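Components:
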Amino acid sequence: MSKSFPSRRSWAEPWKVKVVEPLKMTTHTDRERAISEAGFNTFLLRSEDVYIDLLTDSGTSAMSDWQWAGMMMGDEAYAGSKNFYHLEETIQKYYGYKYIVPTHQGRGAEHILSKILIKSGDIIPGNMYFTTTRLHQELAGGTFADIIIPEAHDPNNEYPFKGNVNLETLEKLIHKAGKEHIPYISLAATVNMAGGQPISMANIRAVRELANKHDIKIILDATRAIENAYFIHEREDGYHDKSIADILKELCSYTDGCTMSGKKDALVNIGGWLALNDFNLYEEARNLVVVYEGLHTYGGMAGRDMEAMARGIIESVQDDHIRARVGQVEYLGQKLITSGIPVVCPIGGHAVYLNAKAFYPHIPQDEFPAQTLACELYMDSGVRAMERGIVSAGRDKKTGKHYYPSLELVRLTIPRRVYTQAHMDVTSESVIAVYNKRDKARGLKMVYEPKYLRFFQARFKQL
Ligand code: F0G
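Structure:
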């Protein structure tokens, strides 16, 4: 046992429940009707019709009594709210960046960052795409280039840092594209689309060295950086005795700024920020935020939301908190692995990802196996999950064809501090039941496709 987790043997939660929210139970017939009305898209279900909601860990956390107390301390002044200064100071302390621009959520920060850094024809290397991040890069005239290691595309590969950058690919890209066409390297912590897989400190350091050599910036997607810090603590030599807070700060120190969705690690229902170390860039961002989000001392958030996020950050870097958070995800993952369910290994930080290609080898990828699996799971038990496969990947804007990602996954995403171990047991029972009748599943046909981020609003029919 390491120094940072001294006295407890189990990942058991370091909190107890004070307020509860009743769940509605539905029948199989209710759920068949609901999913059909929702166009076989779990994003279009009403949350009232959901039993255990594992759609996302975004904005779904339970706040602590201390955060709720902070909500009462909201300073709702239009300008100069004291909660902004508390938030700014907290981000500077724990993430270590110099200048902070608040935004309503992560994509608000991505939008501003893309506008100030990307010009038409630029290439933005990244360790696997994320949906909103890539779209903002494209809308600004850029093209995303995947530089993640090949292990990340193989759901069965047990490599402990599948979020790592392939340094050779990156270096070749820099030579081919020319450094003047690479505005920054977009580095994600615990890579969402790869299955919540971390990047190692050694790899980040190496990316920094390469970036220095070519004078290129690195911008971190810090959305789940604390979960990444936990994996570094567990898996990387030299970090077992360091605190999560220290690891987080070191990780951020190799980058020039970050975009952040506070709705994940930071334990709040809404909020985000853009952080930058370069004053001139910060000036541009601070100017643009007033156009798209709000004044630079609230950026689309209420004072109370900023206070809740400042307090959430302080709670989120506590070693016991993060151990319990990832521990619960691991618990569900191990249960499924033991039952022979095909999942992405190793288990990620925020979710367990079912491998839909292995679940439904008889359903071709353009009949949406992962979308099908998410629907089957909902019909079986009312557990709501999210597709992370061909629907999420969207279309190549040049050819108009679907992207065919090698990973065709369903994400069982665990909200922070919300569900119990028994809920995890029910979820795993339902996944096993759906697996046992996998031969009967039929694919889907897309009957409505929105132009942007189609997975949110697309509609399907059963084949
Ligand atoms: N980056 C990552 C890695 C994310 O997972 C998300 C959101 C964002 C950026 C955008 O942040 O939602 O606050 O605008 N992910 C959610 C999810 C939607 O379910 O994974 P946002």
